[in-house]
Design goal:
Elements (H helix, E strand, L loop, with lengths): L1 H14 L3 H35 L5 H34 L8 H10 L4
Helix pairs in contact: 2-3
């Protein structure tokens, strides 16, 4: 397992020698943070959904739960829009915005007819 991690780290370091490598690194970081934040927003919404179900008819608790569920939905929408904007800007500056773009190019090159 340690050998595999070292090989992956070496591969990542070697990729950041070009502008496309920098874009790939930013895309990987953005994808990681997007995944983490979406997961946290879903947990937040589940918690307040449970709070809504156990409010027992108390208007104050129901109102707070509804408000916080709405905040969770808004957070997910903002995350999706921010991620899309990042990819659109990357497309305008000429880089590929797919986090596996250099891998796809290598596969395309290796499978080209000879």
């Amino acid at each position: 397992m340690k050998l595999i991690l070292n090989a992956q780290a070496a591969e990542t370091v070697n990729r950041i020698t070009t502008a496309q490598g920098v874009l790939d690194a930013f895309n990987r970081i953005a994808d990681f943070f997007t995944s983490v934040i979406v997961a946290l927003a879903v947990v937040y919404m589940i918690y307040y959904g449970f709070s809504f179900l156990t409010a027992g008819g108390e208007e104050k608790k129901i109102g707070e739960a509804k408000k916080n569920i709405l905040y969770g939905v808004i957070a997910i929408l903002i995350i999706i829009l921010a991620s899309s904007a990042f990819r659109i800007v990357g497309g305008f500056i000429g880089g590929e915005t797919d986090s596996n773009s250099s891998q796809n190019q290598e596969q395309d090159f290796n499978t080209a007819p000879k």
